[in-house]
Sequence to fold (260 residues):
Amino acid sequence: MRRYLRIVVLCLACGFCSLLYAFSQLAVSLEEGAGGGGGKPQAAAASWLPGGGRGGARGVGSVGPAAHSGRSDRYGLNVQPIQRMHLAVVACGERLEETVTMLKSAIIFSIRPLQFHIFAEDQLHDSFKGILDSWSFLQTFNYSLYPITFPSENAVEWKKLFKPCASQRLFLPLILKEVDSLLYVDTDILFLRPVDDIWSLLKKFNSTQIAAMAPEHEEPRIGWYNRFARHPYYGKTGVNSGVMLMNMTRMRRKYFKVSH
Fold:
């Protein structure tokens, strides 16, 4: 009988302690809310977009969730906004669901907030807006929508080069003029680790490197470029342009001529 009594007393003591902890956490959260320092710091919304968000120039979608340029904590210290990681993708044809899955995986695993740059055919814009706006409660990403655009000379040929719209990625440094660095990925990419991991490689670039890509194949006997390509390619098997980490400031400065 004494054993059961001890168990009952122990359970009551544990329950009382849990109740005290819950009340203490509630008090802390209320204090933070009253002091204006609650919640995690949000990155500033991209201010370089033409038209300033909704209702802007054609092809620029709305910025996703609301974000703050910075905040002050309860001790009056200014906390700097978190710099967003920029991720671009090009979607043409029946690539909507595949692209959305890729974006989901990037959001789920990433630590820092993301800025999506989505280049899509006009008929896909409304679908992207509807889906991404429904995720606004996450407050971990912003997005911008752009039309598929190519240089006026030979635009039709550019669009059909390789796979549909594949050559759009070649012009990203010229279109996203205010973006310093960018991670481009194909629609069929699935992130299983934070985007932060590959983004951190930018710090390892030397003074002349402008992009990072992986080899197209590890085994030359099944490589595509070394067996079929009629144009120059890098290394023994070429490089995979489905994932490209780019310092676009260096690209624009050294290798691209912008016409006015």
